[in-house]
Specification:
about 120 residues, alpha+beta, Thiol Ester Dehydrase, Chain A, five-stranded antiparallel beta sheet, about 25% helix, elongated, disordered C terminus
């Protein structure tokens, strides 16, 4: 919470990070080779005041490229959205200290969560 009594904008980045890590590092699908955040974009729709009940974070994939992918999020309750956001992730080879291409397994995993309707709307 900040001085105004609502969840601070930086805390929303932490919420997105937690959701992203939970998604990418599942036991059955793991981005063990590494990845880094290249870009965040956040639209704050409503303030979220301190409370003891959790909010939901939905995420899905909007774009898959050879060496990056985009995750979209909504931080929300059933009746309202607090934040809409996206993160561009770049697979990264930490040993070589450079970006790498997505593996076939990573692409297949991400494709399961891809929202093609949103990508088509953005392209229009």
């Amino acid at each position: 919470m900040d001085a105004y009594g609502h969840v601070n904008n930086v805390v929303f980045l932490r919420y997105l990070e937690e959701a992203r890590i939970d998604f990418l590092f599942r036991p059955e699908k793991d981005f063990k080779q590494g990845s880094v955040v290249a870009r965040h974009e956040i639209d704050y729709k409503r303030q979220l005041v301190h409370r003891h009940t959790p909010v939901d974070i939905e995420l899905w994939i909007t774009q898959i490229r050879a060496a990056s992918f985009t995750i979209a999020y909504e931080v929300k309750d059933p009746d309202q959205v607090y934040v809409r956001a996206s993160t561009v992730i770049v697979p990264f080879d930490f040993e070589a200290q450079r970006p790498r291409r997505l593996t076939a397994e990573e692409r297949e995993f991400l494709a399961e969560y891809r929202d093609t309707d949103e990508e088509e709307a953005v392209a229009a």
